[in-house]
Write a structure and sequence with these properties.
alpha/beta, Lyase, Ornithine Decarboxylase, Chain A, domain 1, TIM Barrel, nine-stranded mixed β-sheet, eight-stranded parallel β-sheet, 10 helices
Length: 385
Amino acid sequence: MKSTPEALIGQGVEHIDTPAAVIDLDAMERNIARMAGFARQHGMRWRPHAKLHKSAEIALLLEAAGACGHCVQKLSEAEALAAGGVRDLFISNEVIAPHKLLRVARLAAELAAHGGRLSIAVDSLEGITGLAAAMAAMAAMGSDADIDVLVEIDVGQGRCGAAPGPEAAALALAVAAHPYLHFAGLHAYHGGAQHLRSVVERRAAIAQAAQAAADTRALIEAAGLSVPLITGAGTGTLVHEATSGVYGELQAGSFLVMDADYAANEQDAAQPAFEHALFIKTQVISARPSHAVCDAGHKSHAIDSGLPLVHGLPLRYANGGDEHGILYAASPDAQLPALGDTLWLVPGHCDPTVNLHDQLIGVRGGLAQGVVERIIHVDARRAVT
C-alpha cells in the first residue's frame, strides 16, 4: 500500500522518493526575512505573487512575516487561496468572460464577509462595464460589497495593459463612475525586465516604467481623481521600483525559492541576495562511461526558461525527454555520478515547476542531512481558469 506524503514527516531526506519537489525550509525562511527587511527599510507595501507557490499555507506564512496580501494571476487561484484562509487578494490579470466576472463578484462578497478584500486589474472599458454589471448583480442579491480596481498599464511588457497616459486615465475615470467599483490605483508590472541580465539594463527598463506610471498618475490626478497606489515589481527589479519614488507596493514572488533563470542575472549589490530553496530530488538510474541518466525529466520540472542546474556538482543536465535527464561532466576532471546516487536539481523556472506537483516536501537541516518537517500542499495546482 502506498503511504501518504505525511508519513514522511520526521524522516530523513534519504526516504524521499524520486523525483520530488523539495523545499529547503531554512533557505526559504532566510529569503522571507530578507524580503521583509527590505520592504520595511524602503517603506514599501509587500504583496508577493502566489502564482509561484500556489499554497495557502505559504501565503499565510508570508503574511505573518509582513506581507499585506497576495497577488494571483487567475481567478481560480484566488478562490483556492481564499478557501485556505487568505483574505486580501489581487487578481493582477484581466477577467472578461461574464460567468467568470460573476465568480469575481461572488468572491469579493465572500472575502468582505470575512473582513477581507478583493482587487482586480482592468485594461478595457469592456472589462470595466462587465465587472460593474457582475457587482450590481451581486448587490441585487443583497451584497453590499464593492471591489478595488486597478488600471493596468503596459510599461514595457507588451502583453496586457492600456497605453500609459490618456487611454489609462480615461479608464480610471470610467472605474470611478461605477458605484460598486473603487478605483485603487495603477498596476504597472514590467515582467520583461525581470530577466534582463545586466543591472544597467534592468535599471533603465524600470526607470522608463516608473516614468510612464508617474505621468499617468499625474493625468488622473489632474482630472480630480486620487491615485492611491502604484503597484508592480518582480524579483529581478524590486530594488529599482522600491527606490523610484513612484511605486508603493512590491509584487515579487520568485524570491521565495529562486530558480536557475534568476541565477543567471547579474547580482545587484543593492538588492537582497536570495538563495535557491526549491529543488527536484532525483536519482541516477543508469550509468555509462560517457554520461549518467537520472529519473527527473520534463514531467517533474518546467523547461520554458531553460534546463535545470545540478546543485553543487560540476555536471551539466541535458534534455532526456519526459522521464529522464542526461548528465554530462561539465569539466574535463569532473566525475560522473554513480548508479543510485542522489542529485538535487534547481529548476529553470520555479512557478510552472510547482504547478507540476501536488505537494512540496519541506526539509529542515539541509539537503544532505535534513529531516522532513512538513508537507506543503499546492492548493491551487492546475488552477488555470
